[in-house]
Amino acid sequence: MNDKWNVYPSAALAGAVTRRVTARVGIFFDGTGNNRVNSQIGADCQALIDINAGQHIKECGGRHTQLGSSYNNDLSNIARLVSLYRRQPVAENEGEGLKVYYPLYVSGVGTTSGGRDSVWPGQSFGRGATGVVSKVENAFRKLESVLKGFPQDNPDCVLEALELDVFGFSRGAASARHLGFV
């Protein structure tokens, strides 16, 4: 999806701002039960068990041993893809005008980073606090946050256009489609 919105500065800014920038944002929705933060916590806990001769670590709470939990999953392809997406918060000219790039990751339906998975109703029905709609709302909050930071990194610039690259896996694909319709 590559929608563009043109933003025009107010009359007061028109004379002061000369550099117009296109912001390109990659939004990556992970699949049901996938969460890159929890995957890393689970891997770290497993490593601690290996180091401590099989003894469980109290801080891990046993979450990493539950089959099918986000703590027991490896990184998904979405989690790998977002790490490859360009991050460039300061505008640079690449021959096609000034651009900034921001990758945004949204954990999978039914998961909370550092928290318990929601099998019901999150993973089962894609609803509730960890459901599809909530994940899209989370994506909009993250998008708002990076766009609010734009003026600090680019004080002499104004956003001219916003381009979105939206990716999703499993119910993350449903989240990506929902974002496109909102």
Cα distance, first to last residue? 13 Å
State the domain count.
1
SSE pattern: HEHHEEHHEH
| Main sheet attributes: strand count, strand direction, barrel closure | 4 strands, mixed
Shape: elongated
Question: Could you give the count of β-strands?
Answer: 4
Could you list the spans in which at least 5 consecutive residues all have pLDDT below 50?
A: none
Average residue pLDDT = 91
**Strand order, sheet with most strands:** 2-3-1-4
In angstroms, what is the radius of gyration? Answer: 20 Å
Which structural class matches the secondary elements? alpha/beta
**Helical percent range?**
25-40%
The number of helical segments is 6
Measured by DSSP, the beta-strand proportion falls in 15-25%
List keywords for this structure.
182 residues, alpha/beta, 4-stranded mixed beta sheet, 37% helix, 21% strand, elongated
